[in-house]
Amino acid sequence: MKILIADDHDLLRDTLVAFVEASGETTTVAVSDLDGAINALDVHGGFDLVLLDYNMPGMQGLDGLTRAMAHVSAPRVALMSGEAPRDVVHRAMGLGAAGFVPKTLPAKSLVNAVRFMAAGEQFVPAELLNDAGEDRAAHPIAQKLTKREMQVLKGLAEGKANKQIARDLNLSEPTIKLHVKNLYRKIGAANRTQAALIAREAALF
């Protein structure tokens, strides 16, 4: 297994390399910024996983993630950070990141997360996912809707027709139409487009 680790904190980077290489099954290349990571991808290639510090020089938010993911030698790219807003984590995953690794993870858990992602899986700590779900559920719009109405609204936000939503939820089309009518009334939407815009602006999905 071949891992590229990019972090501008020397001590943390060296410690992480030591943890990852301790099993004897992994080789690492370590750099201190995004430009160094891109150069390492050019020179070495063939990495199973690229691990980028979200706050290191050159990253510019998620732009660094997408830049690394576009490289032919980086099929799997993950972020790590001491602190990152949950919305950043979810946006990163939506872009196709292999995962998000908090620097506060115990060494054993961190190494397991790296192996997990290098093997082709996605890793995000459960508490981040759960907290994000609680944030969405706490939104005033979400509190107005039933669980089924939220599922239907998600379908509308994704641009799906009633027939497709009915198929996804294993319900009849007339039932979906009724849910749509009810959620329009509850969130103050006049049509499907407006309902979708309301859902997106509220970051419900």
Automatic annotation (TrEMBL):
A UniProt-annotated Pfam family: Response_reg
InterPro entries: CheY-like_superfamily, EvgA-like, NreC/VraR/RcsB-like_REC, Sig_transdc_resp-reg_C-effctor, Sig_transdc_resp-reg_receiver, Tscrpt_reg_LuxR_C
PANTHER family: HTH-TYPE TRANSCRIPTIONAL REGULATOR YHJB-RELATED (PTHR45566:SF1)
SMART domains: HTH_LUXR, REC
Gene name of the encoded protein: liaR
Residues covered by the HTH luxR-type domain: 139-203
GO BP terms in the entry: phosphorelay signal transduction system; regulation of DNA-templated transcription
Domain Response regulatory stretches: 2-118
Modified positions (4-aspartylphosphate) in chain numbering: 53
The name this protein goes by in its record: Transcriptional regulatory protein LiaR
Alphabetic keyword roster: DNA-binding, Phosphoprotein
GO MF annotation terms: DNA binding
UniProt-listed SUPFAM superfamilies: C-terminal effector domain of the bipartite response regulators, CheY-like
